Amino acid sequence: MCKFSVLGFLRFVWSEKSNLQLIVDGFLFHLDKKCGSQQFWQCIYCEKTKCRARVITSGEKMEKRRSLHNHQPHSKIIKNESLW
């Protein structure tokens, strides 16, 4: 079960393994790395389907996005439950 909170247009969720994830347009991303104030996210299917979609955020704002997914959105596994 995923839980989410909306921060502007970014939605953050906790995975079943308690890892922070980002939802953008129905796709889930996990945090790949941080560099200064920037967070680099990659699609959760990066290994499963070799999806190359990525998002860069800074605080609560999306700075850059490469959204070429090679699979359908993750809408079936996203639950609409409040994070707090």
Automatic annotation (TrEMBL):
Organism: Dryococelus australis
InterPro entries: Znf_FLYWCH
Pfam families to which the protein is assigned, alphabetical: FLYWCH (PF04500)
Gene3D superfamilies in the cross-refs: 2.20.25.240
Domain spans labelled FLYWCH-type: 12-71
Entry superkingdom: Eukaryota
Keywords: Metal-binding, Zinc, Zinc-finger
Protein name: FLYWCH-type domain-containing protein
